[in-house]
Amino acid sequence: QVQLVESGGGLVQAGGSLRLSCVASGRTFSSLAVGWFRQAPGKEREFVAGISASGAGIYHADSVKGRFTISRDNAKNTVYLQVNSLNSEDTAVYYCAARYGSNWSVSRVDYPYWGRGTQVSVSS
Q1: What angle do CA 8, 86, 81 make, to 5 degrees?
Q2: Please, how many CA atoms are within 13 Å of residue 70, restricted to the half-sphere of its CB?
Q3: What are phi and psi of 39, to 5 degrees?
Q4: Which residues pair with 80 in a beta bridge?
């Protein structure tokens, strides 16, 4: 069983930055590919970024490319999402999700393990 806990969200002004963290339980973290998703009020949950189990492969959705950066530290069982140049459209609950296997997926149905999310709110 894998448990994921996100942290690092908060209220920030437009143009600001945050670093989101996702800590996983267990000793198999280096076997897990991880994705970050977000869900704004009244909208579908959308893929934001993914990272392979080794950390060698990363992918960012077009909507966040150049502003968000995903990374991981397998020694700390942690995946990070650095979010910069925030705007009001980035306001959402951010979730991390994990799956066994080397590569991420953009589809939420491919992830069996989810955290409870961390709220990011951007004020203009």
Answers
A1: 40
A2: 29
A3: -140, 115
A4: 21, 71
Query: Cα separation of 91 and 84, whole Å?
Result: 13
DSSP string, 77-116: TEEEEEE-S--GGG-EEEEEEEEESSS--S-GGG--EE--
Q: CA 117, 122, 124: angle at the middle one, nearest 5?
A: 170
- Interior CA angle at 63 toward 46 and 67, to 5°? 115
pLDDT by position in tens, the chain (length 124): 899 999 999 999 999 999 999 999 987 899 999 999 999 999 999 999 999 999 999 999 999 999 999 999 999 999 999 999 999 999 999 999 999 988 999 999 999 999 999 999 999 8
